[in-house]
Amino acid sequence: MTDRAAPVIGTRPVRHDGVDKVTGRASYGADLAMPDMLHGAVLRSPHAHARILSIDTRAAEAMPGVKAVITAADIPECFATVAMGELPMDMHDGSDNVIARTKVLYHGHVVAAVAATTVDAASEAARRIEVVYDKLKPVLGIDEAIAPDAPILHAGLTAGDWAGQAAGRPTNVASRMELKRGDLAQGFAAADTIVEHEFRTTMVHQGYIEPHACLARYGQDGRVSVWTSTQGPFLVRDQCAAILDIDAAKIKVTPSEIGGGFGGKIVVYLEPLAIALSRKANRPVKMVMSRDEVFRASGPTSGTVIRMKMGATRDGTLVAASASLWYEAGAYRGSPAGAGAMCCLASYKIPNFLIEAYDVVVNKPKVAAYRAPGSPMSTFATESLVDELARTLGMDPIELRLKNAVAEGDKAPYGPAYGPIGLQDVLRAAQRHPHWKAPLGKNQGRGVACGFWFNGGMGSSASVTLGADGSAAVVTGNPDIGGTRVAQAMMVAEELGIPVERVRASVADTDTAGYTDLTGGSRVCYATGMAVIRAARDVRDQLRGRAAKIWDVPIDAVGWDAGRAVPPNGRGDREALTVADLAAQLPKTGGPIVGHAALYAPAAGPGFAAHICDLEVDPETGGSRVVRYTAFQDVGRAVHAGYVEGQMQGGVAQGVGWALNEEYIYADDGVMQNAGFLDYRMPVASDLPMIETVMIEVANPLHPYGVRGVGEVPIVPPLAAVANAMRDATGVRFTELPLSPPRVLNGLEKSSA
Amino acid sequence: MAKVYLPADLSRHTGGVEILEIDAPRVRELQQALAARFPALAGEIERFAVAVDGEIYSDAPYHVLTSESEVYFIPRIAGG
Amino acid sequence: MSRLHIETTINGEPVEFLCEAQDSLLAALRDQAGLTGTKEGCTTGDCGACSVLLDGRLVPSCLVLAAEVQGRRVTTIEGIATGDRLHPLQQRFLEHAALQCGICTPGFIVAAKALLDANPHPTEEEARYWLAGNLCRCTGYDKIIRAVMAVAND
């Protein structure tokens, strides 16, 4: 038993669900089976852009083992909007993405689905569905999409007022957004040095190792049960209700363990199909995506074209910045261009700027959120230019950043002043760290970059139940991707003064958990944690009430100290009562104790990070290797240090992959050429060194412990940290990612020519 | 009077007015007052998140305002 | 087409199952033998989530035909612990927080066991290269390697 006088927050207990995970007992989306279950398979469009002229499913329906075939005709056209927490989602687009109604908009777009007794029978039957298409020319990038004679994806998408003379005409540019401050012309006029580049990144995928999977059962009573791997069980419920026009109260979603999400398991793909098939076949239907399908037809993030210009005076003060951000939305509107615009200058005090951000539809899968959506790409541009400015001015790159770095009270580019934030602290920590001054070897270079993410708040519920033995159980509706259950158990242990081993944290389904917004947006430890703490405090107050009853004193006279109800002063005849003592007497003192909390947390605990990357480049092959990496981040308050470090290291690895190797490669016909892990090259263990993490804690005043979100910020700095290291190692400024060997070799050859 | 800051995408509809003072008990009445003064804002302003004294909310029409409140309208974004 | 009848040994126990000629060992383990601890990440042998030992040799079970295990010995994640005693690798993974979502963990533990069976005291570089066939998207590999090295150095 741990000594209860010692604080729990900041320790590193073994996670309670850990044994199941290391023994293979934990159940993920594809691990559940039901008696009588059918398997679902999907027919996907072979074309990147086409009109659907007809679909004939008769041959498929006649095949042995086939119990149901569906097309969009089986699902009502959807005009609903679903509140997704931070942004409402247009379900007309969402539903059309699940199964195409009149047009296919990307290679892999679902056209029909089959449920059969075996996976093979379902796939075979899907291949027998005859679809007649009218092929259209696909649009596969920003440049093509905005060209004057570009094929138009959506007939109803017309340019807004911002398009001037072209307003009202069909376009692939779904929206334009602008942020500005001061006077741009004056700002640049005052600059002694100006740098400007065009940056390009490609579509990349979150790369979660677990493909999407679900099992749905439509009961004869019209009640629907869905078991699925998701970041948001309530969002699955609400999206399916909207798409299928079913009362949400009739749908129960049970989240399985989830094998990675990073934002890609928020929007539904399979669940509505599985439910519709189950309804038609009158049996449960299981559907699992193949890896190929995950790449082609789930939700990667945007490729971008970013033109950015920055000006500084010779003492290193940033005076002006302008940027045009063009983000691919994929087949339907909704890229994170706006967030990219709001993040790219968030680290600096710049008195004059103008940023415009464009959301552009292209014939690729509809993009979904990917860890700090929008920020890595635009920050890549900013931090590369800041690096260039440092070189031009002969200034230390960290010193230049410190000179302009925001602090509490400075205004964010999107308006309000920052509360307490840790950017200057992380930059100073980086500057003081031995890594910054360590000698570099041959063909090695060093890059530094910083980054920002807002971190979300939103709604969460929690309940904490006390057992008769003095143990506690905490229940929320947030799937645990990164260790939030153990963090929640630690919070309850801290509040109640009981050992953390005596607290069980679990994730409940949409019928048994109070409503909670998704697991994502770096919000669970902050907002759901806040609800957990409040629910635990509710239990504690109720326990004080029970002690008051036992001692026959007013509740206000009962104190609380490290897991004990303490009698009022001068009552030496009464001994303090522990949680266990009180729990044993619950039936006598008023019955069970359950603590509740439900709240809506504001967003305002922004996160800043600074990373240092050492890269070794092989000039003969263009190949490169990260040889040392240190990540500095303001984490607010680390509840479980091990899992906070894990978030930092994981974000770094994804960012390094994005910078060096990951990209969606398309042929001219719009078919992805590298839809597998061999050629979509994510970092492996031999690609990376140990990733050192330095956590700085600047308490977030909105949270009782000072917690701020940590999960997303770490993916933001690596793109520029790596590119800046490449510049340092090779003398070449690369503005296009990934820095794969052929591109690097090409760049090296050009520069020596 | 709450001090209200409008981003570029809203000040486009106000003839460039970016900072205003509005007397309103809650965010909802503030939105209505703005739409009344600048009709082009109606339908637009509700699509923005709002930061009241540094706390950001996606959608908070009933958030109470004081005479010292600082209100920023901010584009809504989502995490992952 | 009639199915094949396979008799094999999984985690020390005799097991029989039926399968099609083209079924993978991965599918047979998960769907016929009820052993869902071995995971499917890609079915092309690139992610390592399906790692098992076949006669002690590390293989991706998605690239082994179910029929190939007739008369042979298979070890899956379910067979790594001894009764209720965790294997040191499992214990160290927990202590080092070497898992976040946990989907790659069974594959890593099986692969790491094969490493330590072949080379009880690998260097960090040897461990990283041996485990390069196992993808993890959550951890950046740092804590995984630390956990493996901790067992190696015990």
Overall shape of chain B: globular
Q: Largest interface, counted with CB-CB under 8 A?
A: A-C, 59 and 57 residues
Q: Classify the helix fraction of chain B into a percent range.
A: 10-25%
Largest sheet of chain A: 7 strands, mixed
* Poorly predicted regions of chain B: none
How many helices of chain B? Answer: 2
How many domains is the backbone of chain A divided into?
3
CATH level-two architecture of the largest domain in chain A: 2-Layer Sandwich
Oligomer: heterotrimer
Please tally the β strands of chain A and state the result.
Answer: 28
Q: Which residues of chain A form runs of ≥5 with pLDDT under 50? A: 1-5
Gap between N and C termini of chain A: 69 Å
The main sheet of chain B comes to:
5 strands, mixed
Strand portion of chain A? 15-25%
How is this structure best described in words?
The complex is a heterotrimer of chains A (about 750), B (about 80) and C (about 150). With about 750 residues, chain A is of the alpha+beta class. Chain B is of the alpha+beta class. Chain B has a single domain (about 1-75), classed as Beta-grasp domain (Ubiquitin-like (UB roll), Roll). In chain B, about 20% of the residues lie in helices and about 25% in strands. Chain C has about 150 residues and is α+β, with helices and mostly antiparallel strands. Chain C folds into two domains: about 5-80, Ubiquitin-like (UB roll) (Roll); about 90-150, [2Fe-2S]-binding domain (DNA polymerase, domain 1), CATH 1.10.150.120. In chain C, about 30% of the residues lie in helices and about 15% in strands. Chain C has a five-stranded mixed beta sheet, with helices on both faces. The radius of gyration of chain C is 15 Å and the shape is globular. Chains A and C meet through helix 1 and helix 19 of A and helix 2, helix 3, helix 4 and helix 5 of C.
